[in-house]
Amino acid sequence: MSAGNNGSGEILEVNHSTEDPEVQLAEWVRNIVILCLSLGPFSIASDVIGLIIGNRLPVNTPTPVIIQYLSCLDAIFIVQLMATSAAYLGLISRLSVSNIIACKTFSFCNWFAACAMQLSYSALGLDRVLALYMPFSYRNWTRKHALVSLAAVTAVSGLSSIIPVFGYGIMESTDEEASDGEGDTFCKALMSAESLVSVVSYLVNMSIPVALVVVFNCMIVVALVRKRNKISSTGNGSLAGDIQLSVYLLGVTVFFSFTVISSNVLFNLLYVPAPIFTTAISTLLYCINSIINAAFYLHNPTMRKCLIVFVTSACRSPK
Hints:
There is one protein chain. The protein is mostly helical. 73% of the residues lie in helices and 6% in strands. The protein has one domain (25-312): Rhopdopsin 7-helix transmembrane proteins (Up-down Bundle). It contains 9 helices and 4 strands, in the order ββαααααββαααα. The strands form 2 sheets. It has a two-stranded antiparallel ribbon with strand order 1-2. The protein has a two-stranded antiparallel sheet with strand order 3-4.
């Protein structure tokens, strides 16, 4: 703000200030959250497509079961993110609790869904590695083997999700604008970046699953290149279906890796100065990830045919 004279003795005030950066950031966050809520139904629909395709795939291998399990977990995770976004916009009541049991239960469910989902992507990558590197042995793997593997994923996710729960508790809001002057109580993470709880939880729930996915993706790429060269040299196209399915599922796991790594980079760089903005961006990335999954599924001819057959039979009038 500066002052000047217009020649008649009147002092004019000229405002050189720009809009408050915090106001601009809040507006950005609001727009991103609105976009997330708009994409939410499409993300859930994408998970439903994954469930249908996994149920209709005409193969008795672990792949369909893993896709179904992954779609269920992704839907649960997206619903939690949508609830948080709706609470931010005031569409539903904010999570204001004084019950420590409710706080820790919510924390456990949130961590469990995230951990199991990431381990499921690792299982999907391992499934493709076995199919490409040991095709004859892989033919003996059935849906029952997948159920046993996913039971192990569930157990590991459940046990590892107990650890972060100890780092969550009730904190009182420091909002100075609270009408009662005391603020609300919120369920928040009490852990610090150096605490044992934080280290163990991020290793088990974040770093290890993503590292496994990246390793499996590299192995899949090497196997696909070798098989493509073999088909090109021999002219034998019998492996085309297996390669095609692996290519599309590789796209699913690669984009998931990008989503998780980007979210973690954002949290490490921006969470302290802009926690709400970082959370909004991460929510947007996960919503887009769900939609991208469905796009990969539908681009595969076999998977697309499964969905078309299901829709056709569902719309057919009963005789």
